[in-house]
Amino acid sequence: MRHGYRTIGIVTALALVLGAGAVQAQPLLAGSWVLDRSQSQLPTWHGRGHDTQAAPQGTPPEIKLLVEQQGNVLKATRVMAGGNTERSTSVTYITDGTDQAYQGHRGNSVTRAVFEGDRLVVTKTHTMHGQQGERTMIREALWTVSPDGKVLTIDTTFQSPRGTRTVKAVYLRG
Question: How much is the mean pLDDT over the chain?
Answer without folding.
Answer: 83
